[in-house]
Design brief:
The chain is globular, with a radius of gyration of 13 Å. It has one domain (3-91): 3-Layer(aba) Sandwich (Trna Endonuclease, Chain: A, domain 1). The N and C termini lie far apart (33 Å). Strands 1-2-3-4-5 form a 5-stranded mixed sheet. The protein has helices spanning 3-20, 58-71, and strands at 24-27, 37-41, 44-52, 74-81, 86-91. It has 2 helices and 5 strands. By secondary structure, it is an alpha+beta fold.
Length: 93
């Protein structure tokens, strides 16, 4: 499976997980921005970056944090670790 397909699959899984917790979630595919998903609940906005088998680089984190600061959103990184078979959610900042 290509990296793009694997990443897209995990974006959809994370989207469904957040929706199950009551969030409205939109996938922003193809935007080439820092966020893969935007989630909203109780007037709070979260920019979510989904990674597979690696954490984001410091440059990617800085860009996510800057974009969130510019619009009042909360930065979140979700990492799927296939070796541990575990999904880690990191609220940045």
């Amino acid at each position: 499976m290509r990296n793009y397909e694997k990443g897209r699959r995990w974006e959809w899984k994370v989207k469904k997980q957040w929706e199950a917790e009551g969030y409205i979630v939109k996938r922003v595919a193809g935007s080439k921005g820092t966020a893969d998903l935007i989630a909203v609940k109780d007037s709070q906005v979260y920019f979510i970056q989904v990674k597979v088998n690696r954490k984001p680089t410091q440059t990617e984190l800085d860009k996510l944090i800057d974009e969130c600061a510019a619009c009042g959103a909360f930065p979140v990184v979700v990492v799927w670790n296939s070796r541990k078979r575990q999904l880690d959610t990191i609220f940045v900042g």
